């Protein structure tokens, strides 16, 4: 499966990934991030159920220093 | 007259003990930022929303140093130039942190970083409809400030001077007009350079001061954070105390009666 994550192509991902599985695969702390798929926010409570589709565009964000 | 300890800042029904809000940008590292926060006594920090670094998932995160359970994170929309950008960013922030209190800033020209007030008003409307409590960075124009309040802004945050300039309160007349007409908190956001600037803002009657560069780019940020804590308290106390009238001539402090 092919995903675009934070503007970069990821081609080597298995089909049928849930959001939770992707987060674990990327090694990210689930509590501190949020994810948008194709411009829609994915609620954290659904990370375990939502299955990603080929060519989904994801944005994964966290908080950094700012004014 | 309320005592300092009960003179709290209340925004959108939430109570904060400190009237100082600090940014988390431009510090040498997150540890210095955390130390400055402790010295400042601030209850709220502004934070930015950005992509995670996928190539180094173990890189330190702000939340490892400043605990969002103890300090209120106020997500901003820095870098957003349209209402749509701003609402997209803050929806993600809300999901990441679970907070609906946010700072809206829609900027225009990178040279002066003045807010684009037309877009700011539009974004304000969109965010309010989406259930956000919005603290708004705005120009020091009482007409726009009134419009923001009418749209339901949780706090009006006029600039004292351009972001990061450290020039101090350039237009105290406008800031005072905004304070006079507003029934929501007015917080000077941007322009403070040193402690006396923060005191001036508070003496004008502002409900709070938001600053980042003044602390982060001081030679000793932690010490400046402490100075700002005292500056904001001093200005607030002086405002509540009510200053003496200015006079054109001297007035002796020691009585003249009973002179030998």
Automatic annotation (TrEMBL), chain A:
Protein name (record): Thiamine biosynthesis protein ThiS
Source organism of this protein record: Algimonas ampicilliniresistens
InterPro entries listed in its UniProt record: Beta-grasp_dom_sf, Mopterin_synth/thiamin_S_b, Thi_S, ThiS/MoaD-like
NCBIfam families assigned to the protein according to its UniProt record, in alphabetical order: thiS
Entry superkingdom: Bacteria
Spans traversing the lipid bilayer: none
From TrEMBL, chain B:
Keywords: Cytoplasm, Schiff base, Thiamine biosynthesis, Transferase
CDD domains, per database record: ThiG
Record EC number: 2.8.1.10
InterPro entries the record matches: Aldolase_TIM, Thiazole_synthase_ThiG, ThiG
Thiazole synthase ThiG domain residues: 11-255
Pathways per UniProt: Cofactor biosynthesis; thiamine diphosphate biosynthesis
Keyword Transferase carried by entry: yes
UniProt entry tagged with the keyword Hydrolase: no
Subunit details: Homotetramer. Forms heterodimers with either ThiH or ThiS.
Name under which the protein is recorded: Thiazole synthase
Gene source species: Algimonas ampicilliniresistens
């Amino acid at each position: 499966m092919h995903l675009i994550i934070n503007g970069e192509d990821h081609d080597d991902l298995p089909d049928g990934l849930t959001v939770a599985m992707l987060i674990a695969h990327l090694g990210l702390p689930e509590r501190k991030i949020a994810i948008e798929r194709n411009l829609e926010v994915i609620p954290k409570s659904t990370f375990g159920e939502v299955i990603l589709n080929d060519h989904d565009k994801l944005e994964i964000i966290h908080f950094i220093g700012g004014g | 007259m309320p005592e300092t300890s009960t003179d709290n800042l209340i925004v959108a029904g939430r109570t904060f003990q400190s009237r100082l809000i600090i940014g988390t940008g431009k510090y040498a590292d997150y540890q210095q930022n955390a130390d400055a926060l402790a010295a400042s006594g601030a209850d709220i920090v502004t934070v930015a929303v950005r992509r995670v670094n996928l190539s180094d998932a173990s890189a330190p995160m702000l939340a490892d140093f400043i605990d969002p359970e103890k300090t209120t994170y106020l997500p901003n929309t820095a870098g957003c130039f349209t209402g749509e950008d701003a609402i997209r960013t803050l929806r993600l922030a809300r999901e990441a942190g679970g907070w609906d209190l946010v700072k809206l800033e829609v900027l225009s020209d990178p040279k002066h970083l003045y807010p684009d007030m037309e877009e700011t008003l539009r974004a304000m409307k969109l965010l309010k409809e989406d259930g956000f409590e919005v603290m708004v960075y705005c120009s020091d124009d009482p007409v726009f400030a009134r419009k923001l309040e009418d749209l339901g802004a949780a706090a009006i945050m006029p600039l004292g001077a351009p972001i990061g300039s450290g020039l101090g309160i350039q237009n105290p007349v406008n800031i005072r007009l905004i304070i006079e007409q507003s029934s929501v908190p007015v917080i000077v956001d941007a322009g403070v350079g040193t402690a006396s600037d923060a005191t001036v803002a508070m003496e004008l009657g502002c409900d709070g001061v938001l600053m980042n560069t003044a602390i982060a780019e001081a030679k000793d940020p932690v010490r400046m954070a402490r100075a700002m804590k005292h500056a904001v308290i001093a200005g607030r106390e002086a405002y509540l105390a009510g200053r003496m009238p200015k006079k054109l001539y001297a007035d002796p402090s020691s009585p003249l009666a009973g002179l030998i």
